[in-house]
Request: fold
Amino acid sequence: MGSIAQERQIQVSALWVFPIKSCKGISVQSWGYNESGLDFDRQWMIVEERTHGFLTARTIPRMILIEPTLDLQKRTITISIPEYRDFPASSHTIPIDPVAGKDEEHSDLRVWSSLPLDGWEVGNAELNRALSHYMGKEVRLMKKGVGRRECGPMNGYVEALRAHGVDLEYDEPDSPACLGWADEFPITLLSESSLLDVHNRALTDEELRARPHFDKERWAHGAPLLEITRFRGNIIVKGSEKWEEDGWCELRFEQEGFEPETLYAVFRLARCMLPNVDPATGIRDKVVPDSALRPYRERLWRDSPKAFFGQNLVPKRSKGVLRVGDRVAVVTRFESDGKGRFKRPEDEGDF
Reply:
C-alpha cells in the first residue's frame, strides 16, 4: 500500500441520505456522520407485520417512490406515499425519536443474515394503513434501536485494515464500525466517471443492445445519463479517473475553514438488481445497468458472481461533517497489478 501523487482535483459533488431503507433519498449540502453512517441514513425500514421480515425495492420496486423528508428543528420525519390503485396519495408526519409508552420495542429484527436486532415500531394507524395498501401487504415501520450492529458478515475486515496500518479512533476503543439498517457497511461512495463508463457501455455494447428486452429508446444516444441515484450512494465524487476508486484506501475530505475528515475505503461494493429500478418511475429495467456492468465488473472479489461498483467506507472517528465541495485527497491506495486490479484487504483472510 502506498501514497498517491495526486494532481487532479477530486471533489464531493453530491451527498445523499436515505432515511428509510429502499425509499427515496434526500440530497443535502452538508451533513453529519457517526460510526453508523450519515446521520439518519437507513435508520427506518419497512417490515412485514407478521414476520418482521424486512422489505426492499429489490422485490417491490415501487417502494423507491416513497419519499421521506426530515425536519431536524421539529425532530420529525414526514413520509409521503404516492397514489396507488384506488388509494390516494398521502403524507404522514411522526416524531424522529420513538415515544416511550406508545411505540413498541422489538428485538427480533434482522437484515439479511444478521443477528437479531432491536428496533421500535413507530407511526400510527393512518401511516400503517397507507403503507400497507401501497406495499400490497400488512406492514409496519421500524426505527433502529440503540443496540450496536457491527458491520459485516466480513467481521475480519478491521483486522485486515490494521495489518495495513489503519486504526479507527472511536469512542469505544478497538470497536469496529457499526450501522443501522444498511446492508453491510455504514457509508458508500460512488464515482461520476465510473458511472459515465457504465452509461457509455449501455450505448455502445452491440451484444447488450441486441437483447430482446433492451430499451433502445431509453438508452439511445442523447438520452438522459444513467441516474447515479439508482446506486443509492451516500458520497458522490467527480474528477477521478474511471474505476480509480477501486484502489483507494485512506481518504481525507478537506475544505478551507473546516477540520478535515478521514474515511477508509474498506470493501468493494457488490451490486444487486436494485439499480435497474428507475428512481423516477419505480419500474425495473430488464437489462441496464446490471447487464452492462457484468462483463467487466463481476468476480472482482474472489469468485463472487456479483458485479461491483463503488466502495464501502468507514469513518476514522466517531463523528464529523461532510460537505459538497470537499476536496478528496487520496492519502493511500492499495497495490495495483498493473492491469486495473488492486490487492485489497478483503482479498486476504477468511471473510
